[in-house]
Amino acid sequence: MRKIAIDIMGGDNAPAEILAGALSFAKDNPEVKLYLVGLEENFKDIDIPSNCEKVITNDFLPMDIKPTEAVRRRNSTMYLSCKLVKDGIADGVVSAGNTGALLACATFVVGRIKGIDRPTLAVPIPSSNGFCVMADAGANIDVKPSNLLQFGIMAVEYAKILGKENPKIGLLNVGTEDNKGTEREKEAFAMLKNVFKDQFIGNIEGNDINTGKVDVVIADGFAGNVAMKTMEGVAKLITGLIKNETKKNIVSILGALLMKPVFNKLKEKVDPRKYGGTFFIGVKGVVVKAHGNSDRIAIYNALKVASKGIEEELPEKIRGAIENVWNSRNSRN
């Protein structure tokens, strides 16, 4: 049985939407056990399914918490959710709480995989080829070339789990030429090329991310997060423009009615709730970060993501991939 801890008090819509999403998921997935980590009052007049267990505490982390404080508040719902994974009681954790706080708890409570310096936030992004995985999407701002290589190794394993058999990898840069970027990007380029060979297609620019050119995009957390948020903004802009244009006259309205199935499919594809949550990869258990404003649908899907990560043994596959790379490099030295 897969076992997942969920931080009931994490997120802008906690606890109501978090609990609703968790209970709905539990009802539809009786083979998964959920540990509902929350405050006593969260469960008042709530019927708890048999595959759920309450874990009661008296503290939770606000959305503006500092990461350093998060690891000191050991009675918080987020900390205890991660500790259930560390202690082997749960296989994974889901939280819509503060990103930095969850990264700190994932790193210092759940613990890093040997050979990983920094866990990374890996996000599936819609593309013309289905999707690509962005790593890092905001967890690590100041990184070294070796960190970028590790992000690549981990993101490739994640992409494989999502269905990409032989993922193509690109390094996000200010140009596609091999000599573009700072010394960090140039060194990371050489390291990625050495490890991934032809699987690494080289540098890519921001306008390549959604074209299907690559399946994995490697970036520092600053550039990755800016790129991801820009894409979200453009998607909202296009959606808004389409809505406004279709209301202008009767011809536009009739055209919109005929195109409604297409618009619905497009909306579903770019809806962040569909993905639900993203992995902090590089830690010993499955840690899924749900969006801060997640509703019950997003939480339901975040739990699906966590369940799949557990079923596919994502941490174990990353551990094996890291060991293979390091062993291969050591044998050549």
From TrEMBL:
Q: What class of enzyme is it?
A: transferase
Matching HAMAP family, A to Z? PlsX
Could you tell me what this protein does? Catalyzes the reversible formation of acyl-phosphate (acyl-PO(4)) from acyl-[acyl-carrier-protein] (acyl-ACP). This enzyme utilizes acyl-ACP as fatty acyl donor, but not acyl-CoA.
Any one biological process term the GO annotation gives: phospholipid biosynthetic process
Homology family: Belongs to the PlsX family.
Q: Does the keyword Cytoplasm apply?
A: yes
EC number from the UniProt entry: 2.3.1.274
State the species of origin.
Thermosipho atlanticus DSM 15807
Q: Got a GO cellular component term for this one?
A: cytoplasm
Top-rank lineage group of the source organism: Bacteria
Q: Which reaction does it catalyse?
A: a fatty acyl-[ACP] + phosphate = an acyl phosphate + holo-[ACP]
**What's in the keyword line of the UniProt record?**
Acyltransferase, Cytoplasm, Lipid biosynthesis, Lipid metabolism, Phospholipid biosynthesis, Phospholipid metabolism, Transferase
Primary residence:
cytoplasm
Concerning InterPro entries, the annotation shows:
FA_synthesis, Phospholipid_synth_PlsX-like
Q: What is this protein called?
A: Phosphate acyltransferase
GO molecular-function term, one example from the UniProt record:
phosphate:acyl-[acyl carrier protein] acyltransferase activity
Assembly, in brief, is:
Homodimer. Probably interacts with PlsY.
User: Where is this gene product found?
Assistant: Cytoplasm
Q: In what pathway does it function?
A: Lipid metabolism; phospholipid metabolism
